[in-house]
Amino acid sequence: MRELKNAEIIAVGSELLTPHRLDTNSLFLTGRLNELGIVVRAKTVVGDNRHDLAALVTSAMTRADVLLTTGGLGPTDDDLTREVIADLLGVRLVEDQDLVASIEARFRLRGVKMPTINRRQAMVPEGARVVPNHHGTAPGLILEREGRVVALLPGPPRELQPMFDVLAEEVLLPRTAGRKVRRRQVKVTGRSESQVEEVAHPIYSCLGDDTTSVQTTILASPGLIELHLEAVGTDVAAVDRLLDSGVSALAQALGDVVFSTDGRSLEKVTGDLLRARGWRVAAAESCTGGGFLARMTDVPGSSAWVSGGLVAYSNQVKVRDLDVPAALIDAQGAVSEGVAVAMAQGARRRFGTDVAVGITGIAGPDGGTPEKPVGTVVVAVATDAVTVRTFRFPGDREAIRRHSTSAALDMLRRALL
Amino acid sequence: MRELKNAEIIAVGSELLTPHRLDTNSLFLTGRLNELGIVVRAKTVVGDNRHDLAALVTSAMTRADVLLTTGGLGPTDDDLTREVIADLLGVRLVEDQDLVASIEARFRLRGVKMPTINRRQAMVPEGARVVPNHHGTAPGLILEREGRVVALLPGPPRELQPMFDVLAEEVLLPRTAGRKVRRRQVKVTGRSESQVEEVAHPIYSCLGDDTTSVQTTILASPGLIELHLEAVGTDVAAVDRLLDSGVSALAQALGDVVFSTDGRSLEKVTGDLLRARGWRVAAAESCTGGGFLARMTDVPGSSAWVSGGLVAYSNQVKVRDLDVPAALIDAQGAVSEGVAVAMAQGARRRFGTDVAVGITGIAGPDGGTPEKPVGTVVVAVATDAVTVRTFRFPGDREAIRRHSTSAALDMLRRALL
User: Fold this and answer.
1) Cis omega before residue A132 (within 30°)?
2) Complex ipTM tops 0.90
3) Would you state the pLDDT for residue A282?
4) Res B374 pLDDT > 80
5) Which residues of A touch B18 (CB under 8 A)?
6) Within 10 Å of residue A386's Cβ, how many Cβ atoms?
């Protein structure tokens, strides 16, 4: 019997090809397939078009051990999945009398006579296994061809999800030879994607052993680089050891720009460090407009370590509420190391906290100068001592603000280490 | 010349085949293609796998007039799109010296030497048109084959989006025979999806005439319901009239919960109202932790109408910095109409603004009580007068915080009308 190692998913429905909808069933299915050690090779969304659907199913069946389709099992002319797949596999569609009866019963329960068109949903490709639908009218259908599994599932999540349990338990699990996918994450801040890649590549390209290969993916967003490691195997303990050794090697090579190897966010790691010390934090924010504390307080329970903060969007507020000397602003400018430090110290005094953060910068699109272009951001962290750094972040207003809050979180984290 | 009627999109990247990520670029691209009257036939996500990518590109090129790929243009070994497509089209990859220079310059600007691996991003398939990347290192590449257009775009949205403008304007638009998709948006806050649907359905289901049909989609997120109207035609003026009449009818039926019919966000609408009055706003935030002002200051130029604010995450800060009477907190609790009003008034006094917002609530997951369950949020807006409302928002911490900032923006908007 063919071992099932990989899958493709095809979502059928023209409504999924508008600018407003995403096929989220594939996330559920991917998660559940991965638990069985089945990797998703590709996923596709196709409209209610016989020719396109047939072409995509044909192509997927040359690659995938498991092909899952979602949607296109309704009672209308638009719903083509059953017919197209029966055609491609060269089998007839036959009316299943038990299904007719159960669909009729379903309508009767709601006090409605079954519309004639719903009989289409009782048509079954010859040889298919029928998976009952307890939340709707379209049954699931499972076929096999040359050892490959083809499963037709309905589109609505609450109909599809319980059917997948049946498919997984009875058809897929017995043919996965006990394989499992295991994952790890290494999260980095304060480095660009290529800087991380340059250090990490020599390490992850040598991971893996004779029996197990480790796949690595790098994900980048402003202020955050994630390395995802993934390996498949039957000896879960051995796979875990392999991944853990990879994580250790990467963490050691990358150094203290790695803030998390256990999935925690930068906000959570920083909050945990504050809690461990029994410290509280405050902030004085200018260009980030409250975004730093908004991120700090994203973490449940953060009232234990966040006192509060001041959004000082005007110089007047900086002077009056944070005791930033007006002469300092005149001399160095509002975006300067002196002002950032004075903001952090002012917030620490005002809120009576152990540590405080000051952020001032130019998020754009306007306000830049040749000496201080858009993207210039200064962050200060004040404890009894002070650290301050000037950054020049790339990107638009949103990216610069995101970089700024990430840099501030990271400087706070380092001050707590 | 082949008329461009339909497109396929292939997103490349193994990270998009995990259970945690969706390809959202395809939504942007679909929207923009639709504006050109180009329909999306199918869209696919494929991993960083040479064989699968080649098979899917080959298959798509038999169907689509326009093939867009996103991702896989980075500097690493994983990034295969350039090579695979050059291979399939039978052209060589040649290093483009101008590109090498511009990538080097980009790194220099940030004070970093270009890592050697980034040279890969200067490799161009022979005959391809290069679209410069002003937000990153990978250029876009446009090829044509038998009248079909193949465009390779980078994955990061802010790199891809401006490149699509170039592609649309210079390559696609001249070949769409004047078809246009026109769209309108009606944005609503403070109502649930079903409340909006109940009022809007009788109206939009009757839109359209003999020659043009109007498609309507309802999109819901915490604190925001959007109605999208869409129609296709060559007589743009007629299509616009049809859509405008629909927008008017919907706006009239829904009333003042409609805050925008011109695409502006709630943040922008509220900021524009403040600017029109020459007013400044301040805020005192508890459960939203700075999120309200972070949204207000998302809008470029917001320093003209935002003075600042106080994040009062502890009661002590509320009492000391906002003059909220401690006795009031004891009597009514920190989450109460009295305290929200005192916070708003305290912020207005302290920051000397025309208007101020106070927000206090229970975002969860802990801290709820039978009388004040998680999701209880009180918002006050103080001018010379005061308005205050108590909400009970559904959802998790993130949704409750988002609902809270939306409700505060909306109450501020109404106070300014």
Assistant:
1) no
2) no
3) 97
4) yes
5) 30, 34, 217, 228
6) 17
